[in-house]
Structures
1.
Amino acid sequence: MKIMIDTNIFIDVLLDRDLLAETSAQVLTLCENRKIIGFVSASCMTDIFYIVRKHTHNTELAYQAIGKVLDIVKVCSVTNQEILKAYAFHAKDFEDCLLAICAKANQCECIITRNTKDFSEFGIPVFTPEEFLQDK
């Protein structure tokens, strides 16, 4: 099974957000143990670096966070074609639209996010970590 993982799932774990980190970590553990194949977009990686560095005030910790992410998921390519599709869609949130388009391009079965309503218009199943884990 292939899944696309939104930035907020990684941030839950990396910043140890109360009440959210545990189930997000369980999803990432499934990826780490190769039970499922996790994907992220390239922009997710830059967002993670920025958020961790801003939160910790430590560039080295931000690089360590990126290293951990790279150990457990694959970064999908974002081509001109995906950008053009997202642009043509004219969604309220371009980044979420692009993530959904990349998920489809990489044959992901769903997107895991904390913001399921933000993805409702893109025609791909979307789950919170808790919803996703109910079937696992």
Note: The chain has a mean pLDDT of 95.
2.
Amino acid sequence: MARVLFVTGKLAEAALRRQLAELAPRLPFECDVAVLPITVVALATTPWIARHLTPPQGIDRVILPGLCQGELDVFRTCWGAVPVERGPKDVRDLPEHFGQRRGPPPGYGGYDIQIIAEINSAPRWSRAELLAQAQQLRTDGADLIDLGCDPGSTWSDVGAAVAALRDAGLRVSIDSFNPSEVEKAVRAGAELVLSVNQTNCAAAADWGCEVVAVPDRPEQVESLEPTLERLVADGVPFRIDPILEPIGLGFAASLGRYLEARRRWPNAEMMMGVGNLTELTDVDSAGLNVALLGFCQELGIRSVLTTQVINWCRTCVRELDLARRLVYWACRERTPPKHLEPRLVMLRDPRLPKPDPQRFAELAERLTDRNYRLFAEEDRLHVVSAGLHLDDDNPFALFARLMEREPIDAAHAFYLGYELAKATTALTLGKSYVQDQALRWGMLTREERAAHEQQS
């Protein structure tokens, strides 16, 4: 069996060995570990590694940490023909590096649900602001940009606004019951009108575009009948929206109306305005969006309307773009939507490393320098250095204990405070903390440069 040598520094040795022990039964090779005489191997360059390491006899392949810098050609001169490659930057990603799939499988990413993103109070925005919002929504995954008009007034410039978005290559819908606004918008290129019922469906025959039909009385799905009959008679294409209600105001019954509408009109196109739930519920929107799109996917509702007004909904379009791919795969493959889309897991991490309390004492014994290594495990913050291991559940108390041992300059204090804040956040939310690496926030993750990179 082939032998693969994994190179690491002192700090990451324990984590690497744990990860390899879990992977070993599933790998087609034997694993060896070489620990370099350096705490953080990301500080080591490839020439330095070549000088300080000679692979043992019988090694068929060498894998370096992904963060080490420098060209790999240097190893050919020093080590001969032994293949050398970089592994992942994070040891937690080793399973995926070796084909132990985590995240989306091959072929993942298809969808058949259209996202309509509404710009609320569109008449109040300048043309430049409107265009900037619309382009960002398209970048985030929106298929149609819906211009939400203000009830009780007429947007005289609606046609020019629609034309500007169309000139920018955007698809547009208009959200208004005002016939004047609708007529100008569709003449300028709007392809969908939200919404029609018995009060305005007669005018739809002159618009030449698709419309969204809603009940005259939201609590009675059968009140759609006269509107649909008129639209069919006039040859107007439509999609049905039985109207989703907020929790406490008929949410469960409104879901039932979508089921009833599908029973009554099995082949009709349908739409759901998901913002009625996400905008009006005190909870982060991603979970609601996934659940609602799962309902839509199973019921054949092929378009959703969303807004991004309240702060907890500010990324709804991105969430829906990921969610529609997740639920499409789940329904097509008849598999639970789990371990497929890590970008939607934002608050907590999908999994945490197994705690190993003994490793802190062992690391303190092995280390020879006084640099502080920070960890966050089992509701405790840990600081480890040569001959030192302190832990506490309070970052202020932990820092005070460090200050009692020796003075800490301002720059180092800032760095430790920043890292301890990240570590405390990780403990609070059930996330994995790795010093000098960004916390994982799914699609919201902001990569950061480690302290040694900031200084270079």
Note: The CA atoms of residues 213 and 240 lie 5 Å apart.
3.
Amino acid sequence: MTDGEFFFFNGHPGALEIYTALTERMERELGAYSVRTQKTQISFSNRCGFAFVSFLPVRRAKDRPKDYITVTFGLGRRADSPRIDAVSEPYPGRWTHHVLLASPEEADGELMAFLREAYTFAAEKRRR
């Protein structure tokens, strides 16, 4: 983990454990990718961005846990899962999904299946 990633979690120390669980699974289960830390999000890219971590409030304040991260990923289809908090289609055939993670255990097989699909979708995006 880089200094930028640690700095991103200043003010959100409880969310760092969730992020660490997510990135450890990503490192084990995905191919090569780069990480870019910005002021409002951490981006994961291969050819293009495939996943993003932020504190985007995808749920109303009363429904959000104290510690959380929002994982955003893009797919070539609209995924259906009760865990997906918000979905939009910013471009035809490109769907953006937001999932709020409130514990390290939520970086599970279902989420990783979505991220593997997003990883492949981003890698092939310019080839289409």
Note: The first strand starts at residue 34 and ends at 37.
